[in-house]
Amino acid sequence: MNEQVHDVIVIGSGPAGYTAAIYLARAGYQPLVIAGAITPGGQLVNTTEVENYPGFPEGIMGPDLMENMREQAEHFGAQVEYDDVIEADLTNKIKSVTTDGGEHYKARAVVITTGSQYRKLEVPGEREYGGRGVSYCATCDGFFFKDKQIVVVGGGDSAMADADFLTRYASSVTLVHRREGFRASKIMVDRAKANKKINFVLNTVVDEIKGGPQGVESVTLKDTNTGGKTSLETSGIFIAIGHTPETTFLNGQLQLDEEGYIVVEGASTRTSVPGVFAAGDVVDNVYRQAISAAGMGCRAALDAQSYLTDQEVS
């Protein structure tokens, strides 16, 4: 066990984690950031050009943006470790976390920014064409599909909203759903059905994504009733079948909502356990944007500072 007690441990990275680290480091707390072993920097490290993050009129590559944030946090004194937290004891006044590499760390406060993962179709071609026609974020990538034929997969509110949004750019949108009925609310379904650019293909799943050097070229569709397969030409496929928040390591210590997202108190980032704060996509199941995650990371840092100050006074 590492006997040093840090002021703050930030679990996770991405815009929320690195922003929290920047604010905490500038305040003199020298946070320890456990950024993740495989994809430190969050989902943006798998993104190509980011055009909607303020301050970059020509856009910036997702990995470059995360690298800049990490360097800024380290410049002010943050320590970054590339490992995954597999266990945490958050209920005591002094918190402790254990990493996959076998390290044990202690801290007076913890900020959780582990994010969420897009649910995947797990079909051939999905991984191969990620970032080259396969997308999980309509607001991030829709602009790149001007006057193209695209596919949206899903049957919830997110899929309906994505399909409707993408018609601003695409020549046509085909919404593919595995059942006849939808999980989406009636108002969202009605809005999508009223959009003349949206076609519906129901009782159907995507069986394979095909493409070439330039990216996605078509998808193979499978009828869930007959098993028959057809091919549909498309330049892109937007997968909107939900997210899975990264909260398994908490083992029920924090209050979660019915979908597994961490519950925070009002507009703050305070969780159900004193001294534990949460920010970014592990909390936010609505906006899921880099800029909103960064803003929440700032709030988490300020909430953590307030907590630590109160602890020092008491």
UniProtKB/TrEMBL annotation:
One of its GO terms (molecular function) is thioredoxin-disulfide reductase (NADPH) activity. Binds 1 FAD per subunit. GO terms for biological process: removal of superoxide radicals. Its EC number is 1.8.1.9. Coiled coil: none annotated. Keywords: Disulfide bond, FAD, Flavoprotein, NADP, Oxidoreductase, Redox-active center. Gene3D superfamilies: FAD/NAD(P)-binding domain. Its cofactor is FAD. Residues 6-297 form the FAD/NAD(P)-binding domain. PROSITE patterns: PYRIDINE_REDOX_2. One of its GO terms (cellular component) is cytoplasm. The keyword Glycoprotein does not apply. It catalyses: [thioredoxin]-dithiol + NADP(+) = [thioredoxin]-disulfide + NADPH + H(+). Pfam families: Pyr_redox_2. It comes from the Bacteria. The keyword Flavoprotein applies. Homodimer. Belongs to the class-II pyridine nucleotide-disulfide oxidoreductase family. This is Thioredoxin reductase. It comes from Bombiscardovia coagulans.
